[in-house]
Specification:
6 strands; three-stranded mixed beta sheet; three-stranded antiparallel beta sheet; 57% helix; 4 helices
Length: 181
């Protein structure tokens, strides 16, 4: 095989590789655009679906923490994963769940559960809300605020609360006067 035959063979191989590369680039561009469109649709759906629950969670969390937090918001952690953070009054300081005390993290969890239940109840029949020992890490003021939030929910659905003090489930709001001193 002489040099010109080898050059022709290499030129043909190069054209074949360029053709494959062109197809791969086109496929990559289509997939990248489709991925971007899908991510935008997911974000629109998430914003539409999360907004009512986050608004409710914000109001409940602010109430239960007695204003120590202005509310909550969706954010992203260092790995780009979605997380919920607490927002301090003034809106400049945010606190991750890891940065919250155990009691405050439990208050956030309760706020999310109550907001989710309210959202569910708007589209479905009421279901009982059963809480077992949720106040164990709350201080007295936040315990009363949480019980008030549960009392408000009890106007819409049955709420049962169990504590180690009573050892039984209490129906709210009938027992509010004995629970909130």
């Amino acid at each position: 095989m002489d040099g010109s035959a080898r050059a022709a063979e290499l030129a043909e191989e190069m054209q074949l590789l360029l053709g494959r590369l062109e197809n791969d680039v086109e496929q990559y561009a289509r997939l990248k655009i489709a991925s971007k469109i899908l991510n935008q649709a997911i974000e629109r759906y998430r914003d539409k679906s999360q907004e009512p629950i986050l608004k409710r969670t914000t109001a409940i969390f602010k109430q239960i923490t007695r204003g120590s937090f202005k509310g909550v918001r969706a954010d992203f952690d260092d790995n780009g994963l979605p997380v919920i953070v607490g927002v301090r009054p003034g809106g400049k300081e945010v606190v991750t769940v890891e940065g919250m005390s155990d009691g405050t993290a439990d208050q956030l969890y309760l706020s999310l559960r109550l907001a989710g239940l309210q959202d569910y109840r708007e589209r479905n029949e009421p279901i009982p809300f059963i809480v077992d020992d949720i106040l164990v890490k709350f201080d007295d003021d936040r315990s009363v605020a949480a019980l008030r939030a549960l009392e408000g929910l009890s106007e819409q659905t049955q709420v049962k609360y169990s504590s180690p003090i009573t050892g039984t489930f209490l129906n709210l709001p009938e027992k509010m006067s004995t629970l909130c001193f």
